[in-house]
Amino acid sequence: MSSSETHWKPTSCQAPDISLLSSDLVGEGIMKKFFHAAESHETKTRALRWGYLRLVDKCTYEYSRGRELLQAFVSSKPSEDRIGIMLHAANHFETCIGSLHRAAKYLEALRRDRTGPKIPHSIAVLRDIGRIRNVRDAIEHTDEDIWKQRISPGDPHVLQVKETGLALRKEEISYQELAKWIQDLHEQATLIAEHGANV
User: What is the side-by-side strand order in the sheet with 171-174?
Assistant: First the structure.
């Protein structure tokens, strides 16, 4: 069995449980604080805040769904449609990474906002944004690589869901890193919501 085949047959799920992190920040009313903020009349700031929370919700949900499917895969029987489960898990993790990168870009823009809260550049999700972008780019460019026949025999055509993390050709991230980045986004969401609020 080749190493690429073993990526599709993890025997355990080592993705951290982030179920304590909400995937409905907008719906739970955290946005209400935003509209009480001193600078909330500024269209760009309001749009950045809204977009940021929506994307944090999205990547949190997609990670949790991907993790659920990975758990379902490792507990399934060989006779079941296991490859289908794994492909669905890959789909959710791909969406998670794309949304995570977008949320991090929004966070960078909020950090530069002159009326916004002080957001440290040293937090992991901003410090590692280059790595996040590299994985996102590998996912996004796979289609073009297929069309232009730049994928060699045996190369993966989709994000690989492994026991300890995700990989696509030369790019790899661990579930521990992914969970930490999402946690960073949540912590900053609270600070951003409370900044300048008159509640």
Answer: 160-161, 165-168, 171-174
Check if the beta carbon of residue 34 is closer than 8 Å to that of residue 40.
yes
| Backbone phi and psi for residue 173, each to the nearest 5 degrees, phi listed first | -135, 150
Assigned token pair, 150: 């730049």
- C-alpha Rg value of the chain to the nearest Å: 19
Q: CA quadruple 79, 81, 86, 89: dihedral positive or negative?
A: negative
The confidence score (pLDDT) of residue 46 equals 78
Contacts of 11-16 spanning 24+ positions with Cβ under 8 A: 11/74, 11/163, 12/74, 12/163, 13/67, 13/70, 13/71, 13/74, 13/163, 14/163, 14/164, 14/175, 15/63, 15/66, 15/67, 15/70, 15/175, 15/178, 15/179, 16/175, 16/176, 16/179
Q: CA 136, CA 14: separation in Å to the nearest integer? A: 21
Amino acid identity for residue 75 in this structure: S
Point out which residues pair with 171 in neighbouring strands.
168
> What is the per-residue pLDDT for 198?
53
Q: pTM to 2 decimals?
A: 0.86
* Distance between CA atoms of residues 12 and 66, nearest Å: 14
Show the tokens assigned to 35.
């509209």
What span, in angstroms and rounded, lies between the C-alpha atoms of 6 and 20?
31
